[in-house]
Design a protein that fits this description.
mainly alpha; 60% helix; 0% strand
Amino acid sequence: MDRYIPTLENVLLKCEMENFEFYKKRIMAVELLTSIQPLTFFQYDTAHTLSIQNILYYYASFGSVIWERIAVSINIIF
């Protein structure tokens, strides 16, 4: 599982023309990352693309799977 994490992170860091299909790929990558390793996003500073603040702001609508998995990981930490 861990071997896929850098690939998924690269999808989020890749600079391509913003279109709907690429945005859907990014959301899928975030959903997969939150399924595999939700604590990944807590490692980055708030200015970084992969920070938890940016992930929740840009890719997670309220009540989505991403929000749920992040909330569960926070509960595990505390």
